[in-house]
Design a protein that fits this description.
Chains A, B: Keywords: DNA-binding, Iron, Metal-binding, Repressor, Transcription, Transcription regulation, Zinc. Chains A, B: Belongs to the Fur family. The structure is a homodimer. The first copy, chain A, folds into 2 domains: about 90 residues, Arc Repressor Mutant, subunit A; about 60 residues, Ferric-uptake regulator, C-terminal dimerisarion domain (Dna Ligase, domain 1, 2-Layer Sandwich), CATH 3.30.1490.190. The first copy, chain A, is about 40% helix and about 20% strand. In chain A, strands 1-3-2 form a 3-stranded antiparallel beta sheet. A 3-stranded mixed beta sheet of chain A has the order 5-4-6. In chain A, helix 2 packs across helix 3 and helix 3 crosses helix 4. The mean pLDDT of chain A is about 90. Chains A and B meet through helix 5 and strand 6 of A and helix 5 and strand 6 of B. Chain A binds a DNA duplex (30 and 30 nucleotides) through helix 4.
DNA sequence: TTATCACTTTGTAACGATTCTAATTAAAGA
DNA sequence: TCTTTAATTAGAATCGTTACAAAGTGATAA
């Protein structure tokens, strides 16, 4: 079976880049922390565990490269750091985020939900949408009511 | 007639802050450039024209204060700088943005458009929404087709 | 008026995230 | 193999932003 790494390798090759050991280590960290929203520094520290000789600049360059190839998305929640998030395989669009103002948790919404809105925007503003960023700020289910259950995630 | 500045002054007073000359100059710049999305540096340079002795730190502090009071919104389009945008008077929610990948223009959408989506998110994810950020990246009407007209803005 | 107090501003230094640079290393092609 | 190009490294540099110490402002009360 073809693994996720194999497919990413192909994507790199298709753009005439190589999957060097440093790049592979970086991708593995991202795969192992798909749920999280790691900053470059976070990634760097985690990559160092499996590839101690890696440099911070390489991590930055790798993340930039992966962003260019749309393998990861670079996001920004308003604190001073950029975070990097693996894109769902085959996802045409970027997923949305729920940022809790109370506990800081970041949850993801994989559903699109924006189809109607995008149709309106494309027509009414004559704007050809390539991508979107949607983040809700508020109170998450955990903080909302401790007796409530984790919803449809 | 009560001016916009007067009302902002009241908002400051209500939170026991004063509208100092520096703060007033900063607000005036924002009012005079409501269409733009100025960075702190941009604001600083413009404020210097009407109040040359102002310090950069003061501009930052003023923008932070105005953000706290929800008079302006601090936004981030992924380039390394924060931009500041006057909130429409009476707007409960933050407006949306269209960022053109070709010419870099930033247009605004004042309509809400997200009501349905927010209802779904609140119910399905049990998430109490306080605010949102929605930005579309794509090709604007100007770049899309030079013969086309400025749409419903 | 003068003293006092809290708030504000100033310029500069410090900080932290990110990018650049120069030197080195690894890989790929001839 | 040799040559050429791409990738990596450590550390310096840069850039936006924040923190700090000193000075200024303005209101209140003796």
């Amino acid at each position: 079976m073809e693994t996720r790494i194999d497919r990413i390798k192909k994507q790199l090759h298709a753009a005439s880049y190589k999957l060097t050991p440093q790049r592979e280590a970086t991708v593995r960290v991202l795969l192992d922390h798909e749920e999280d929203h790691l900053s470059a520094e976070d990634v760097y520290l985690l990559v160092k565990d499996i590839a101690p000789e890696i440099g911070l600049a390489t991590v930055y360059r790798t993340l930039e490269l992966l962003t260019e190839l749309k393998i990861v998305d670079k996001i920004n929640f308003g604190d001073g750091v950029s975070r990097y998030d693996l894109r769902q395989e085959g996802a045409a669009h970027f997923h949305h985020h729920l940022v809790c103002l109370e506990c800081g948790a970041v949850d993801e919404i994989q559903e699109d939900l924006l189809e109607d809105v995008e149709n309106i925007v494309e027509k009414r503003w004559n704007f050809q949408i390539k991508d979107h960023r949607l983040t809700f700020h508020g109170i998450c289910w955990r903080c909302n009511d401790s007796s409530s259950q984790n919803p449809s995630e």
